[in-house]
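Notes continue from the previous slide.

Worked example: a multi-chain complex. Inputs as given:
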Amino acid sequence: MSTATSVIQATDRRELPTWVRTVVALGGTLAATAILVTALGASPIQVAKAIYTGSVGNSFSISQTVITMGILIGTGLAAAIPFSARLWNVGGEGQMTFGAMAAAVLGIVLPETWSAWLLIPIVMVGAMLGGAIFAALPGWLKARFDASEIVTTLMLNFVAVNAAAWIIFDVFPEGFVQKTESIHAAAELPRPIEGWLLDVGIVAAVVAAVVAWFIVRHTRLGFSIRAIGANAQASRLSGIRTEKVTVQTFLLAGAFAGLAGALIVQGRDHALLQDFSANVGFVGIGVALVARLHPVAVIGSAALFAVLRVGSNSLQAGAGLSPVVGEMIIATFVVLLMVTGVIKFRYPEGADAH
Amino acid sequence: MLTEALLIAFFVIGIQLMVPIVLAALGEAVVEKSGVLNVGIEGVMLIGALATAFIGITRQTVLLAIVVAIAAGVVSGIILAALYVRRGTDQIVTGLMFNIFAVGLTGTLHSRYIAGQNGVTLDGISIPGISSIPWIGEIISKQNAMLYVAIVLSAGVWYLLNRTWYGLYARSAGERPMAAESGGLDVRRLRYPAVMIGCALAALGGSALVLSTSGGFVPGMTAGRGFIAMGVVVLAKWRPRWIFFHALGFGMTQGLQFLAAQLTALQVVPKQFWVALPYLVTVAAVVFAPGSRYPAAVGIPYRPAGKTA
């Protein structure tokens, strides 16, 4: 069974099996982290304990972890799908921010009297549209002008952050707090377990991952995405309209990033907060890679990253370290997975020959 | 009101903001010419900025702060080259992950050792003769040594790429690596120093950012300047002189947000627009850069013939 898409190389049979190399990468990450935190004057055991209790230790932290997992599924899909077509959408951060903005604005301006059955889906779809439209711009610039999507999507992340700041401080400010007014209660995602912060957003995220898998595997668009990922030139020659597919791929990716934004605003924060993201858009790239770009596997890697991410929040109290240590662990793990060849990109045949 | 003093202050700030972008973009040009895309440039700038602030705060010497920042850049370059070039990992993903790592590393070190502290800064240099010229003299004499370092390095990078054997060979590794290898060159060995030079320059850019402001470090203070530098390189078609002038345009665009704070005429749009404008201009730049084309082999790891690693 190969989970790899055509962009990620299948494991060479002569080499060690993938699981062995994954274990090697994981061991390397743990060793590197241990060395690092020791150098920073903390104890690795304490760090491990802090991450454990901080992520799954009690109902509060479990809720946080599952909520973060849902958000990371969204941003993970926003990277996994375009990467499968060799389109480097590194703008998940900005697309998610735009989705969150759309969710906040809709959740505030739509009539308060509407029922939850109406408000929740409208706000969520609005957020997905917001993300999709914001992603369509770099997609179109790529298709029409061949503008490097890496540069354009990275730049648009900063544009989105400033647009959000405008909404937060000038359009719907809430006193002196760095956030917008709260969205209507009827637009909030329900919290099914009494006393838990956990909301139903995770269900939407898991459904999204399955839908993404279906699109990539079983639709015409998905076929085109995989074909372009394998060989853009051959795809074009065989009649696939690569420009159109490029824009559609970005629209799809942006919709999933927008969903992540909706989960943040409707589920977690109930308003648009300044610095609400803490890089989850970028971490989504790591999520997509660890899943080897497989949409359903994104669920699992999002769970792993959510544990690391939320667990790191208690590092300050538990081990006297800044929460951003979690960032380093995630980046190290992804890089080591590439070094050990678990994540290995295929390049078009003869691309380096010229 | 747009007063003379305000306009002069705008140019002073614009040129100061230009310098880090020039340095980073010069570095990126060298890296890309050798056939490697260094998306990790943003992280390297952050590391250079942190190293400068750290030494500036603990040792109070500018020169040592700069030297340590460059050393940190070279070390980053060695790590990145080992991944990009030696191991052949995907350059885009590796660079992005390096950036995430750098955010974590600099954030941790900052909060643990130097949070809220200000270090050493560079003063403006008065050049006799020039500083007495009205307007221009005032703008130039407020600029610190980093401006002149950037000018010298622009010439230096031009010379390296166009007038040395290394520049010629590195460019061939960036355009036609297999042909270069057929000609007896070791492509990977040519790319190594390019990545190290590029990272040293990016770190120096981070250093300039710190030394021209408070001397302290702020998490995420590079704010996409590395990525802007990547856009500048495309717009300038990898030519050092053009890099200098395009970076000036971006520095001035970044300076507009300070002008907007003083000038009611610019306040008809939200102030966030002026902060976002340099990023939008970068997008426009890579879209409309006429006839600009990446070196052919950029982004593709090179595997020497007969080796499978």
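Summary box: Strands of chain A lie at 173-174, 177-180. Chain A touches chain B through 51 residues (CB under 8 Å).
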